[in-house]
């Protein structure tokens, strides 16, 4: 691509959202990507850079000098810059911070000083504040003066002489009030805030609970230090849910996206869990070996082993999925285990009756229609399969619903009660249930 054509393309892009620009630049080859990025206006580089995936970010940083990197970081929103720093090599962080202006350097170091998973890492110090003694006219003047740099103008935050937060007021209320009114006349002293030490999961709960688009962040002593907007919280929700889904799918959570994760890292993350599951499934072979004599006497029982264990595993996975998600959105807690157990016992029993009836009828219909000859004891075999399905589906449902509570009690992530782990547990125990019922019903006939 010639420089002229690049300029033309960029002129077309400059009126688009930074995310759209980042997507277009990412689709170029490596050389054209760097050229296109360098030709962006200085104030646009930082915005576009935050939307690149990590691979492209690293590629761009290798081509930029320390001063160019610092100039780009200078124009970034503080919360976006902090997120970038979390993935930077330490040496590059040190060099880049030293090139920032004194004000931005102080902000960057302050944000990086908070614990890694704290909500303070996501906040921005750019917001509008006012004193309760001000008039509406003074407050609006302050908005015009500092509003351009503020992250959002949805609210104005009222602080006392010690800069402690005492209230927040929607900007719309200021616009509707008389200019000579005081801020205090609009105050109700009711506000919701986050603390700097609060972890991100707790902050997400607060945003969901109070349905807010932006929330102030205060220190332990109540001093207003920043705000967090919903776009940052939404990114955090996406990361958390992605991690939980990966864990529930039976693999270690990936630090990077699937496309950015190296092949060997992906294999390592998956192999460890697969190995554990494989060792668990070996117990299935051991269980079958224990009932080898019964299988030899009634080979027909082996036909239904896949049907039996898959039904139990599926019911367990369903229950685990429902409970883990309910826990994630705080619909359920440890105290609700008894309520869940009662509900899942009834659910498992009804589901087992449905599947057991279908399994029983299937054997009788196949026998009568001549599709397969189960022998003279087809009715008893049908009862064995039917009752086994009831027991195994009930056990699978109960196991899948209770394991997340057990993990939470042990202060472990309930999401690690993945569907494959539940299925493996039910596979092994399901065989025991199946052959125990078979031994009871078929003893004296086939066994």
From TrEMBL:
SMART domains: MgtE_N. Acts as a magnesium transporter. Residues 187-243 form the CBS domain. It comes from Pontibacter actiniarum. Its main location: membrane. SUPFAM superfamilies: CBS-domain pair, MgtE membrane domain-like, MgtE N-terminal domain-like. The chain crosses the membrane at residues 273-291, 297-324, 345-366, 378-407, 419-442. Homodimer. It is a multi-pass membrane protein. Keywords: CBS domain, Cell membrane, Magnesium, Membrane, Metal-binding, Transmembrane, Transmembrane helix, Transport. This is Magnesium transporter MgtE. Belongs to the SLC41A transporter family. It holds the Pfam family MgtE. The lineage of its organism: Bacteria, Pseudomonadati, Bacteroidota, Cytophagia, Cytophagales. NCBIfam families: mgtE. GO terms for molecular function: magnesium ion transmembrane transporter activity; metal ion binding. GO terms for cellular component: plasma membrane. It is found in: Cell membrane; Membrane.
């Amino acid at each position: 691509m010639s420089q002229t054509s690049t300029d033309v393309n960029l002129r077309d892009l400059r009126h688009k959202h930074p995310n759209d620009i980042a997507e277009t630049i990412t689709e170029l080859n490596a050389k054209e990507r760097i050229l296109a990025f360098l030709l962006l206006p200085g104030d646009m580089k930082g915005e576009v850079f935050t939307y690149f995936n990590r691979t492209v970010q690293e590629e761009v940083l290798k081509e930029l000098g320390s001063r160019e990197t610092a100039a780009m970081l200078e124009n970034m929103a503080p919360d976006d810059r902090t997120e970038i720093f979390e993935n930077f090599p330490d040496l590059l962080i040190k060099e880049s911070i030293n090139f920032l202006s004194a004000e931005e350097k102080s902000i960057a170091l302050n944000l990086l000083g908070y614990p890694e998973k704290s909500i303070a890492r996501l906040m921005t110090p750019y917001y509008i504040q006012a004193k309760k003694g001000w008039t509406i006219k003074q407050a609006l003047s302050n908005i015009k003066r500092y509003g351009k740099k503020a992250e959002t103008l949805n609210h104005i935050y009222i602080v006392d002489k010690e800069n402690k937060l005492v209230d927040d007021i929607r900007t719309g209320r200021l616009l509707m009030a008389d200019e000579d009114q005081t801020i205090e006349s609009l105050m109700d002293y009711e506000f919701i805030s986050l603390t700097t030490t609060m972890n991100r999961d707790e902050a997400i709960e607060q945003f969901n609970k109070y349905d807010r688009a932006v929330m102030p962040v205060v220190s332990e002593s109540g001093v207003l230090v920043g705000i967090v907007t919903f776009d940052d919280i939404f990114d955090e929700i996406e990361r958390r849910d992605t991690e939980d889904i990966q864990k529930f799918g039976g693999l270690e959570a990936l630090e990077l996206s699937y496309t950015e994760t190296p092949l060997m890292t992906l294999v390592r993350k998956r192999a460890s869990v697969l190995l554990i599951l494989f060792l668990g499934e070996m117990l299935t072979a051991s269980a079958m070996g224990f009932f080898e004599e019964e299988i030899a006497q009634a080979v027909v029982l082996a036909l239904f082993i896949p049907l039996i264990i898959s039904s139990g595993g599926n019911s367990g996975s369903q229950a685990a999925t429902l409970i883990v998600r309910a826990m994630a959105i705080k619909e359920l807690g440890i105290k609700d285990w008894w309520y869940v157990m009662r509900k899942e016992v009834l659910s498992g029993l009804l589901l087992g009756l449905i599947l057991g009836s279908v399994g029983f009828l299937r054997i009788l219909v196949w026998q009568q229609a001549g599709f397969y000859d189960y022998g003279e004891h087809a009715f008893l075999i049908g009862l064995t399969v039917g009752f086994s399905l009831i027991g195994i589906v009930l056990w699978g449902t109960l196991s899948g619903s209770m394991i997340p509570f057990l993990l939470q009690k042990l202060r472990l992530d309930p999401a690690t009660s993945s569907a494959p782990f539940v299925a493996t547990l039910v596979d092994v125990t399901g065989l025991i249930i199946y052959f125990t019922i078979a031994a009871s019903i078929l003893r004296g006939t086939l066994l």
